[in-house]
Design goal:
Layout: H1 2-17, E1 37-46, E2 49-51, E3 61-64, E4 69-77, E5 84-97, E6 100-108, E7 111-125, E8 128-135, E9 138-146
Antiparallel strand pairs: 1-2, 1-3, 1-9, 3-4, 4-5, 5-6, 6-7, 7-8, 8-9
């Protein structure tokens, strides 16, 4: 029963991360260059309540390059193995349009999406971003902080 509950909650949060939301917010003023770099998951709230983010989940990242490539990676601990594992990865590109940033998700894992998803990325300042998502009546916000070049602790080699 614990496994069913764990996987249900994990599935909810993964789905919540990638389901669009119609809520609109202003972004900070400036040029789009501040999006370029690596962003680490820092915090999650669901319907206004903090959701615990463990060290494994903090390995989750968004990456934005100067040539407009974009990707994200989400990690979770699987209860069956107890190992921190790459759960889901998306690739695509980013756009700056009408003063707002968007990640256009074109692939999910090894699957090319026939209808790419457009996810708005909000910034509170040039070092902090968030993505809002809704799913089955729940509303979640995923907060990211920008990593310095020397803070790159993404362990791509041990996925």
């Amino acid at each position: 029963m614990k496994k069913i509950i764990f996987y249900s909650i994990t599935g909810f949060f993964i789905a919540l991360m990638f389901t669009g939301c119609d809520k609109k917010h202003d972004v900070i003023e400036g040029t789009p260059e501040y999006i370029i770099g690596e962003w680490q998951l820092e915090r999650i709230t669901v319907s206004g309540m903090d959701y615990p983010v463990n060290d494994c989940m903090k390995r989750s990242r968004m990456y934005f390059s100067s040539n407009h490539d974009a990707r994200d990676k989400y990690y979770t601990i699987y209860q069956s193995t107890g190992l921190c594992t790459l759960h889901l990865e998306h690739t695509g590109h980013w756009e700056f349009e009408g003063g707002k940033f968007y990640m256009i998700v074109e692939t999910e894992g090894n699957t090319t999406l026939s209808n790419p998803r457009r996810i708005e990325i909000h910034f509170t300042d040039t070092e902090h971003a968030y993505v809002e998502q809704s799913y089955n009546g729940y509303f979640g916000t995923f907060y990211f902080k920008k990593l310095d070049d020397d803070d790159d602790d993404d362990d791509d080699d041990d996925d």
